[in-house]
Prior knowledge:
This protein has helices spanning 3-10, 12-17, 19-28, 34-46, 51-67, 73-88, 111-124, 139-152, 165-178, 195-212, 230-242, 261-269, 290-297; strands at residues 99-104, 129-134, 156-157, 183-188, 217-225, 247-251, 273-277, 285-287. By secondary structure, it is α/β, with parallel strands linked by helices. The protein has a domain at 99-245: P-loop containing nucleotide triphosphate hydrolases (Rossmann fold, 3-Layer(aba) Sandwich), CATH 3.40.50.300. β6, α12 and β7 form a beta-alpha-beta unit. The site of guanosine-5'-diphosphate has 18 residues, from α7.
Amino acid sequence: MGFFARLKQGLSKTRGNLTERVDELVENTVEVDEDFYEELTDILLLSDVGVRASTEIIDELRRRVEEQKIKDAAVARQMFKDLLVEEMNIPRPPLGWPMVMFVVGVNGVGKTTTVGKLALRFQEIGRSVMLAAGDTFRAAADDQLAVWAERAKVPLIKHQPGSDPAAVVYDAVQAAKARKADLLIIDTAGRLHNKKNLMEELSKMRRIIDRDFPEATVRCMLIMDATTGQNGLNQAKMFKEAVEINGIILTKLDGTAKGGVAIAIRRELNVPVWYIGVGEGIDDLQAFEAKEFVKALFGEDEK
Ligand code: GDP
């Protein structure tokens, strides 16, 4: 199955929420009126877009509809779709070499899997990649990352479980410089219950990179599980306080994803969704395309 078909299938639950309801609304509404906006807001809320984002999006739609003096609900539907594409179509910050990709996110969201997928992706376009096991807290995390490193055929820097993650970063930076690697991807711990420690740990790692590898472009990617809904939004807020985030990678969009949360998260962090995970395999990482995403959300067929 192609990427679009899988995304579409994964988003079918959201689609049940979003598209069918929008279509139903449009079918039953000839002219745009107050009820129309109210219903549309409810639909966004049910699709996990969240209160703030939903209200702001509908306010903007209202502004455009009034400005262009649109009466026809079907035309407003198209404007609504265009608005969602615009929402998600934020340019990605450029890549620069050498680059350090710092990968953060709560346990279980697919962080380690995504590190493996990223390694393969950049390896395949001819970049030399190295991995660093910055999650020294979970003993299993190292082993899991080792499996992914092997699959992607890239070297992995790791220490004993329980050791200082900053020391791993230090060694990994030295190794990346010595081997002239293009890309160093650092996996980090995702335990949330100790927020203060996590924040300190992440900023300490970041300081080491800035100090010892100033020539590197640093990109911090937040991994989010698309199936967690509004809970994901709280995670995003927390990480935003701890580190500067440059992009989002949304995983599990092939599952019964509440795709609407992508819109809320994009707004909350004001950074682009960079990649999406559409499966458990090493090839199941795709560059995010706003237009395709909204089309899949609306259950439309590929052109
Ligand atoms: P971590 O704890 O954040 O490092 O998460 P893992 O990488 O161990 O992944 C947790 C689970 O999510 C594993 O069973 C993965 O196979 C699964 N997973 C990760 N990414 C995806 C994805 O894009 N789609 C699906 N369906 N499962 C995924």
